[in-house]
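Hello,

Our lab assistant flagged a job as stuck in the queue for most of the afternoon. It eventually completed. Since we weren't sure the result was trustworthy after the delay, we are filing this so someone can double-check. Below is the sequence as submitted and the structure that was eventually returned. Let us know if re-running is recommended.
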Amino acid sequence: MRAIIIGAGIAGLAAALRLHQAGWETLVVERAPQRRGGGYGVTFGGIGYDGAERMGILPELRRRAFVTRELVYRKPSGERRFALSGETIAATMGRKSFTILRGDIEAVLYEAVAEHTTIRFGTTLTAVEQDTDEVRVTLSDGRTERADLLIGADGLHSATRALVFGPEEDYRLDLGHRVAVYMLKERPEGLPAGTTGSISAGGRTFALMSVGDGRTAAFFGYRTDGGRAGTSLEELGEIYGDMGWLVPQALDGLRTAESVYFDSISQMVVDRWSRGRVVLLGDAAWCVTLFAGYGSSLAVGGADRLGAALERHGGDVPAALAEWEAELRPEVEKKQRLGRRVKGVYAPRNPLVLELTQLPLRLSAWGPVRRLVERKFQLAG
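-- returned structure --
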């Protein structure tokens, strides 16, 4: 059996690895000229943790995880407001979860599968045809490929989805925010190793995260539902220009950054994830968004469960896809609902609403409550 996978991100590489383990031949097609790295930190757990364990990559993922020793919330001027200790942060996470860069998840998957698949970088999907026996694709390099299954793991702006399911606007739910993320060339002196600093004010959030191995990720997230069109990186200077601390340094770094992720925050609400022998996976199918904080876990866990369904059904690909979706969709829709709820209180413009949303965090940082939370974590461990 053979699968063509569009997209060499987390979902695509996880699918290639899981299908290889199921005895499939795979071809991965990636539009970028080379593998990308970086990205923001995510909490990895749930079905992703279980899937990574079954695929044998969990030890390496855990090795690359990073621990935040302190999370400092600051005023727009940079003045310290309150902080959460590493123990308190850990107490909010389950034992089967950890924090890791999205790019490091991708790197682990790539290293695990690179010798078992063919990856064509700098190539895109241009046409898809299928019948009951096979799917045929045309690529931008002029080649035509045939397979038993086509997996569209090509992200929020999926070409697979556009060609087979219809235009993006038919499925995209804009959540009224925009995000920019990049890796700084070096950790600023004002950010101690192993710490994160965050500022929220006026519908904007900024964070600097020390993520291990001397690396630092800069994160800008802001509302676009009040007249901000969110069309170019240049607008970040105007939006964040009045903030202090390390914000000016992070804005300067944007000019020379090797790679910047800059996009709107949107969900994909797709009523059916497969058509015939074509299936969508990861952000191309759902994109629960960073508000739900579960996208990487769903990508890996979804790929694992897809491989398991294909193993159970042998050559009956449509039956496997139907079973896989029926099993996974409730989890995805639950996370999408969470994302839509969280977006309403993320980076609020109203200072009072901001205070109310941060009140539980401030209580967690208060001595008696902090010790109670940390004690609970010690007992759970």
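-- support follow-up --
The delay was a queue issue, not a problem with the job. The result is valid. The first strand starts at residue 2 and ends at 6. DSSP finds twelve helices and 18 strands in the chain.
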